[in-house]
Amino acid sequence: MATTGYRVLAPQDLGKDLLARQFALDVLNGLQESPKRIPSRWFYDDEGSRIFQEICDLPEYYLTRAETEILERYAPAMMRRASGDALDVVDLGAGDGRKTGIVLQAALAHARDVQYVPIDISEGAMAGLVAQMGTQFPQLHISGIVGDYADALHYFSRGKTRPTLALFLGSNIGNFDYPAARLFLRDMWEGLNHGDLLLVGFDRKKDISRLLAAYADPKGVTARFDLNVLARINRELGGEFDLKRFDYHCVYNPVLGAIEAYLVSRERQSVRVAALGRAFEFEAWEPIHLEYSFKYNPTDVHHLARATGYEVVSEFTDSHEHFIDSLWRVRKHG
Ligand SMILES: C[S@@+](CC[C@H](N)C(=O)[O-])C[C@H]1O[C@@H](n2cnc3c(N)ncnc32)[C@H](O)[C@@H]1O
């Protein structure tokens, strides 16, 4: 009988409060920095996760279509690289898991005893995902974790013995700058065993107008997605942000190789956030930095794998060569 469920990571039994406190602290610290910033992991409350699904369906947002094409074509070949009859599929930043379903289908055809371990900071996304995967794959064991990647990984990897395929899809790696990506991948390496596999999705460097179109759609869905962070502060922390007084703006920085996304205050204003017991001052046209989305060349991907203790097993791209899914193996000895 398959088991299905998830747990909210609760160090010191703080439970959901832990995430609420981390959010409040990040807002408090981030809005006092110069430039102001709010980390992108807070995009994804229930509303943010829902708007992200709309983004995935936009004609300009080629990333989801490209990665879907890769997985539909190559997931069985990827699975042949996994050994044995048992497999844990760990899905970091799983979201709605619409692409992971393709991997799980191939995993179940390959191994008899498959456990799915989605990890996501959004409890709304996790609840929907666990219910949906449980219906789609009744034979699958599902053991989700709601929490930040790093906390969830440490929790998952304690005493781990089963072979693992970790997924980091959808260009999630792009939210880290290069040094942070190296640290993160090395942290994952620590939690995995020799021979485990990691599949990482990288958005490729490409024509800048195509990149920009994917992050600034004409319908304004991405703008709504970013502005939702302010709405979330209003909802959860008693903020008084007037969303009409902020514009969404994104640029591609060719020196960094990254899309940068901002909200810009249209005027001088002071915004109170009740739960933080203070107001934040904005100059006219002052930005809040919300997101980086770093882009990669194939050589960048190889360097990153080698620098963090992995061997590149195979590399898969879509028919337009917009995206790369790179399959790595953990090397801890010989
Ligand atoms: C861009 S979506 C990608 C979803 C899916 N993997 C895909 O490829 O379509 C990013 C997902 O990662 C989650 N996420 C973002 N930052 C996170 C963090 N620091 N820890 C855990 N989950 C995070 C979000 O809640 C969201 O569901």
Annotate the secondary structure layout.
Layout: E1 4-8, H1 16-30, E2 36-37, H2 46-56, H3 62-79, E3 86-92, H4 100-110, E4 113-120, H5 123-136, E5 141-146, H6 149-157, E6 164-168, H7 178-191, E7 197-203, H8 208-215, H9 221-237, E8 246-253, E9 258-265, E10 269-273, E11 278-282, E12 287-294, H10 298-307, E13 310-317, E14 323-330
The structure holds S-adenosylmethionine (SAM).
List keywords for this structure.
single chain; 334 residues; alpha/beta; Rossmann fold; 2 domains; 10 helices; globular; binds S-adenosylmethionine
Describe it:
The strands form 3 sheets. Strands 1-5-4-3-6-7-14-13 form an 8-stranded mixed sheet, sandwiched between helices. A 4-stranded mixed sheet has the order 2-12-9-8. The chain is built from 10 helices and 14 strands. A hairpin with a 4-residue loop joins strand 10 and strand 11 (278-282). The chain is α/β, with parallel strands linked by helices and 334 residues long. The protein is globular. S-adenosylmethionine binds at residues 41, 44, 49, 52, 93-95, 99, 119-122, 125, 148-149, 169-170, 172.
